[in-house]
Amino acid sequence: MTQPFTEDLIITTGPEWLTAKRRESLALFNGLELPSESVEAWKYTQVGSIDFAALHPHAKRDAVTDIAQLPASVQKRLTGTDVGAYIVLDGPDVVYATPLPAELTAKGVIFTDLRSAVEQHADIVQKYLYSVVPAEVPDDTTIAAPGTTPSKSPDPSEGKFSALAAALWTNGAFVYVPRGVEVELPLGAFRVMSDAGSFTATRTLVVTEENAQVTFIDEQDSEALPGTYAFGAVELVVKDGARLRYVSVQNWGEGVTHIQRQRGDVGRDATLNSLVVTMGGTLSRTEMQSYLRGQGSDSEMLALYFANKDQHFDHYTLQHHAAANAHSDLLYKGVGDDQSVGVFSGMIKVDLNAQKTDAYQKHRTLMLSNEARNYSVPQLEINANDVRCSHGSTTGPVDQEQLFFLKSRGIREEQAEKMLVTAFLEDVLTRVPLKSVVAYIEGIIAEKVGAA
């Protein structure tokens, strides 16, 4: 039994209800075993070697007054970006932020760090925090609506890291868009770490009320940090008729272990578009789940990843159809090189009354090395009889006919292979209408392909 964390790590300066929840979550974490290969969702990703007792909380950081004082990678990303407002967190602390435009504040839009939101917008935070990603794994057959008490976990060990994130989160981002308000420019949170051998736990909460609309960009970046851990949870509340686009770009440095659960709760005629990009870290486990609660709800789930060297990337997805006439479309594409490992486990789950479900799931992997490995487990669980569901997965090397065609046009083999890799991933990015984000991701891909 892993019991390394004590209550002295819990932040107790917040309201009583939050402190009580933190303590409850820590007790749950300490009482749960780590997921093992006997848990299907963790079959190919082993975390038993994590020495929690050896970790220390990420050191505090002071705020800066000039963007030039931020890490070079963050400066490069923020220069010329088209976000409407952003915050930069180094470990647990906000080190730089730009204000939300006055016209949005006048409409009731809130964008701040979560620690400040707990103090300044307590009623809203208390209503929604832990409602979509509770400390334990939610039982999707009976999950409660956001703002109400979630159900208990059917598989306790899967809740180990959710309990950790619920207990020890130090900060994160908070977005609230009132009913009928549309935020045109994206909002962004840029997280960095700079303390090797530490851990940080963050939490993101985005609430879009009825018929509201917003785009939120959640990025992570660091230099190489051996023995460093980033735990997290992302809660996305999409009320009836609302539209939320959520983008997660993980580009941690070598030596970082990243474990995060991202979950959206989608109401009637609402839309959640998500993009998960995994490029960095040594071990990364990202869960993206959409719970289609309302009739006519829609979820687009996109992802791309490029694993090389000894990187291990694990993606777990859930498209849960709980209401009739809902639609979901998943497209995950990845590249594996060197001695890397890629894992994809995706489930389409259709409840008894979710008739007229329309769900698609596609995972494709391009292998650049005979030593790289990839495990793909697409799954269906259908309990309704009037649905249209399909899933599939392909894994293979670079197409030799395409490679020959490019070489026959005078293109060197190395350059031709790079072109095919870029084209393979590009069709995911063409579905993302965010130019600066796409350009940033293309830059990371170019660096990866250059090393391939």
From TrEMBL:
Superkingdom of this protein's organism: Bacteria
Domain SUF system FeS cluster assembly SufBD N-terminal: 8-187
BP terms from Gene Ontology: iron-sulfur cluster assembly
Pfam families: SUFBD_core, SufBD_N
Limits of the SUF system FeS cluster assembly SufBD core domain: 194-424
Protein family according to the UniProt entry: Belongs to the iron-sulfur cluster assembly SufBD family.
NCBIfam families: sufD
Alphabetized PANTHER family for the sequence: PROTEIN ABCI7, CHLOROPLASTIC
Name of the protein described by the UniProt record: Fe-S cluster assembly protein SufD
